Amino acid sequence: MSNDTSETRPANQGKASLEKAAMQDEQVQDIHAQLMREKEEPSEAFTPIPIFLVFVIMVLGFWAGIYLVLYSGEFRSDVFDPKFRAGSGEVAAAPEITLFDRGARIYRNQCAQCHQADGQGVSGVYPPLVGTEWVTGHPEVVARVLINGLSGPIEVKGNTYNGNMPAFGPNGLNLRPNELAGVITYIRQEWGNSASEMTVDMIEEYLDLYSARTTPWQADELREDLGPIPGEGSEPAEEAEDESADEGETDETEAEMA
Ligand code: HEC
Q1: What is the pLDDT of residues 121-138, one digit of tens each?
Q2: What is the average pLDDT value for the chain, to the nearest integer?
Q3: Does residue 135 line the site of ligand 1, with CB under 6 A?
Q4: Rounded to the nearest whole angstrom, what is the distance from the C-alpha of residue 216 to the centroid of ligand 1?
Q5: Under 8 Å CB-to-CB from 115, ≥6 apart: which residues?
Q6: For 32-98, what is the HEC assignment?
Q7: 137 alpha carbon to ligand 1 midpoint, in Å?
Q8: How far is CA 60 from the centre of its chain?
Q9: For the residues 237-254, what does the mean pLDDT come to?
Q10: Atom 33, ligand 1: which residue's CA is nearest?
Q11: What is each CA distance from 89 to 42, 84, 92, 95, 148, in whole angstroms?
Q12: What is the number of the ligand 1 atom nearest to the C-alpha of 142?
């Protein structure tokens, strides 16, 4: 019996320890399960941005682009003047652009495509402006051409042209009086031309006379009924002399042409 017991005891003992071990396993599992529950869920490494945020960023980028285009001042360094004070004298003292300089700009934009930057025109199509008495003669002639345009045959420096010169007066491309005065002054004085300037007052007088006219001039009409040169009487003697010198030139060239 004792044998039995001695036999069974270890067996019992073994069973107990097995059960105990099993219990421990369960506990361990429980604990693990608990740990697993309490730990954060494993997740993907990259969380996508919320889609609305993507939209917000795109809209902001778009707005920033438009803002830059509108308000960058062409990224020029002189656009923003931190010392600017409205109404202060500095602004009034801004450099005044001369008739000639304004005319040079108008010429580049409005005339150079036909008469070319060097004023030589295009052979057979656009007449030259250099050294032609249409340009450097009586200022009323060139004022007429500019205000109303010109069409039909015209002889310039020995060549005959027959095209259409657009009008730049109020019935045409409508340049402002100071722009017309500028561009006429420019072509009368650039490239070695040396005729008198066309002042704004002068061109305004011619605009009064010719704004109503809607047809372009013909070359042979251009020299008819020319009035006195405006403002000549009131000008200082020096300038009057200049004008008469110009007239002399004109007569010479006319004589040459005839
Ligand atoms: C579309 C082309 C064109 C443009 C732009 C143009 N012209 Fe002309 N211009 C002509 C043509 C063509 C003639 C000759 C017209 C004719 O055959 O009757 C002419 C003739 C002239 C004449 C008289 C002839 C001469 O050569 O002296 C003057 C002055 C003149 N243009 C000045 C100007 C000025 C200044 C501008 C700019 C404000 C200008 N033109 C813009 C085509 C043009």
Answers
A1: 999 999 999 999 999 999
A2: 81
A3: yes
A4: 12
A5: 121, 126, 127, 128, 129
A6: HHHHHHHCCCCCCCCCCCCHHHHHHHHHHHHHHHHHHHHHCHHHCCCCCCCCCCCCCHHHHCCCCCC
A7: 15
A8: 26
A9: 45
A10: 111
A11: 72, 10, 5, 12, 40
A12: 29
pTM above 0.85, yes or no: no
Long-range contact set of residues 33-39: C-beta below 8 Å, sequence gap at least 24: none
Q: Would you identify the CATH topology of the domain 100-257?
A: Cytochrome Bc1 Complex; Chain D, domain 2 (1.10.760)
Residues 141, 226: contact at Cβ < 8 Å? yes
Rounded to the nearest angstrom, the distance between the alpha carbon of 239 and the centre of ligand 1 is: 28
Residue 151 near ligand 1, beta carbon < 6 Å: yes
In short, whether 130's Cβ falls inside 6 Å of ligand 1 is no
Domain ranges of the chain: 100-257
pLDDT at residue 164 greater than cutoff 80:
yes
Q: Are 231 and 202 in contact (CB under 8 A)?
A: yes
